[in-house]
Amino acid sequence: MPKGPEGKAPVPTSVWTRPARSRREQPTLTRDQIVDAALELLDAEGLNGLSMRRLGTRLNSGATSVYWHVANKDELLELALDRVMAEVTVPDPADGWRAAATGYARSLRTMIHRHPWTVTLFGSRPLLGPNAVRVMDEVLAAFGEAGFTGFDLEYAWSLVVDYVIGAAGSEASWATNQSGTTAAEWIETLGPYLAELDEHRPRLSSHVREIWAKDTDALLEGHFAFGLACVLDGLEARRP
User: Fold this and answer.
1) Which residues mediate DNA binding here (predicted)?
2) Spatial CA neighbour of 50 closest among 127, 133, 2, 115
């Protein structure tokens, strides 16, 4: 990142804002090929699994070809994040702002489940790529249909995004770290611990036994649907 004036923070940069290079200089390796390979690493191993060296090895290419397209890992992540934002859809708000907001929230949630590494990138940089810009413009149209304008419009759609990122991120973390383990199996494993809770914290023990006896996927879906409904109910109450 370029340095700012003395005593100032570094000047932010983005792969989307720097001038394009001459096509005459372009190497055989394309930007799409680089992003494809980066996504394979990210989806398989997360952010820690991606490095410029490993990417070059995966592409059977030297670092020069990669660095022609991206200056560093941050720019590569910008490209990867925008690529997966293409998976996010926003229904036509003509069918109602709430239906559009719900469809958008569920689409974003599904994308995060497919690509859990995206969670920590949201909020870390502006989303300037074409897919992200398309999504944001359509989301503004949906929440504008509800009557929100100006800062209230910004706060309304950001509230939904923040809820989805938090909920879907937690779900993705569970899926990654507890893959193949059900809540019911946890109940069985925690048998002695819960028996102790029965004596000292009977209310909590009873609640855990009741809730965790449910199918894990159904439980997570119930959590998400309830929370999203509460968020949208709150926005409905604040509509102009």
Assistant:
1) 51-70
2) 115
